[in-house]
Amino acid sequence: MEEYGIIRRPIVTEKGTILRDENNQLLFEVDSRSNKSEIKKAIEKLFKVKVLSVQTQNRLGKRKRLGKFVGRRKNWKKAIVTLKEGDRVDYFEGV
After folding, report:
1. Is there a domain that residue 59 lies in?
2. Which pTM value belongs to this model?
3. How far apart are CA 2 and CA 5, in angstroms?
4. How many domains does the chain have?
5. Where are the strands (E) in the chain, listed by range?
6. Is residue 92 pLDDT above 70, yes or no?
């Protein structure tokens, strides 16, 4: 799988900002079929940093209703990536 297919988008939230500042961790939405080693290789190649660990979470989509119709949002996978001390991703510095 290609690097740009594995990493969907960065997740920029208040919790993600705290993790980035205190623990040097980044949050990404990733392809649900990818595993930790593929995520690690993709992050290292795209951002040219050293990844120490990757933690993943499978998130269930919320149930939503519109009148009498009930639907679901899509399920997705979140990756918490820990970077080596001193490595930074410039993409997140201005956020």
Report:
1. yes
2. 0.87
3. 5
4. 1
5. 7-10, 25-30, 51-59, 63-66, 69-72, 76-83
6. no
